Amino acid sequence: MAKKQFKTESRKMLDMMINSVYTNKEIFLRELISNASDAIDKRYFRSLTDSSLGLPREEYAITIAVDKDARTITVTDNGCGMTDKDLEQNLGTIAHSDSGEFKSDNKNDNISIIGQFGVGFYSAFMVSSRIVVTTRAIGSDVAYIWESEGVDGYTITETEKDSFGTEIVMYLKEDAENETYSEFMDAYRIQGLIKKYSDYIRYPIRMDVETSRPVEGKEGEDSTPEYETVVENRTLNSMVPIWHRKASDVSEEEYADFYKAHFYDTQSPLRTIHARMEGSVEYEMLLFVPANAPYDYYSKDYVKGIQLYSDGVMIMEKCSDLLPDYFNFVRGVVDSSDLTLNISRETLQQNYQVKTIAKSIEKKIKSELLKMQKEDREKYESFFKAFGAQLKYGVYSDYGTHKDVLQDLLVFRSTSSDRYITLKEYVEAMPESQKSIYYAFADTPELAAQLPRTQAVVDKGYDVLLLCDDIDEFALGAINIYSEKGFKNVTAGDLDLSTDEEKDALKQANEECTDMFTAMQEALDGKVKAVRFSSSLGEHPVSLSSEGYISAEMARILSKMPGNEMFANAEMALEINMNHKLSDTLKKLFAEDKDKLALYTKILYAQARQISGLEIENPVELSNLICQLMTD
Length: 632
Ligand code: ADP
Ligand code: MG
Description:
By secondary structure, the chain is α+β, with helices and mostly antiparallel strands. 37% of the residues lie in helices and 22% in strands. An eight-stranded mixed β-sheet has the order 5-4-3-6-2-1-7-8, covered by helices on one side. A six-stranded mixed β-sheet has the order 15-14-17-16-19-18, sandwiched between helices. The longest helix has 24 residues, at 352-375.
């Protein structure tokens, strides 16, 4: 029988498993049991519409058997089984499995991926040198044997099997100096693994366990009982899904263990939400806010969703209709006996119950996040670092439709403290005289704090939000008005900070120098809309200020997107600090040396761009200009 080759991705994955230095090899049992449980779910499901395929409910089971002489562990289920095509597709390829595609060639990356994801069937190769799968699909007369020793391929042959379901025999690897595989044949070890990873599996996981018990009626002469070894068929799991238990009966640690095993995370969740909801639809929810974004979170491969159960039977692995995009990081389980089992994916979307549950989940997540924000700001900050960008996109997307849900979940750095603050806290701390919510944008909060115009606002006694995510300004734009206050970018137009006298003085100074400013603007070849004095630059000599709705920073971000080149030059003004010595220098040059004024203007413009986080358009020219200045 010719060997078939694994698909490339699968081979990589297999290779990784076989040569794995990953220490957590024990998870292989969890993977096989979870597959067995899925398979029984599928059979049960099918039997709802075709009762000839089903079994009496209490007969569904997963069995584990150990043969120490043959060095094998066997996992058997009476689930849906597989046809030869299924075997090809499911065990010959990995691409469609939950584990996603394994693109990385870096061994270390791969190892952390093992930790993060369900690695599935192939994980059995971490402990086995050979695997034999015998399976018969429901409704089929033929059974098949799939057999493989790893990377060099697999064979599929026909066979016979009495009943539907799958049997997987793992031939354990030989023990090596620093790796023991025999331990997995130990009954206590297996019982421990099942308690740890698979306790909530709804079908009994059975195993024959040897125990000794006193022989009845046979007491020795000194009345010590005689013992005999008997084999007991035990159910190793408690079968109660953790979400069916009362929240007060479940410890933090149990939640964390469940979360890590069920959602393949190496870290405990930041927050657990466990509630029984009553009302028009009754259901249990067990939701988790992860501590970190999974590695593919910001890629298009990431799929949001909540596991949907109907009375303990999983009907969907990722029900995306239950989660709004902005809370797509939440993982968890929803279980409702009100949902009919044989509901199809299409009808699910329009399903009244699903809509109701989705609404209450959204509410619950929001209120729990607000609670965390209030009770433990440090924890909330770490949450926000991981998922804040998603919330900001949420505010901005759909034309700001969701801003009411999300705006109070946002937190920002500001000039007033090292901590993050909410918009509500900002507004509550505003002095009477302050009309707008000020913000500054730069690559880092520190740089934003140093912007000339930030300083001017701070000097006035106002707090400034320090933004550095591309999405920030767009999100604020979508909020538009918060608590009756508008938002003002410190670099945009008139900050309206000065007194009437100051305003008059500025106006006069500007009027006196219109000719000079025209000359300077000409020197810049129309790159700026205007050149003028400003009285709100604090100690700083120059700055750029934007003239229109689009700030310099928004322009920078927009211009990076294809088709948006027209934004590359937002309408900007070059501002000279009226109170800086520089203004006198410029006036003198305008009177005495117009060429030099042009030279100075170009250099000042480049400086102002750089301070605003914009690129210098022509660094070579700038360097030449500065040299010219030095050698004059
Ligand atoms: P996943 O469970 O994430 O889909 P696995 O690698 O664990 O990935 O399994 C791959 C596929 O093989 C499963 O989706 C399922 O279709 C099939 N499979 C694995 N084990 C069994 C089993 N015991 N019975 C029926 N099908 C199975
Ligand atoms: Mg699996």
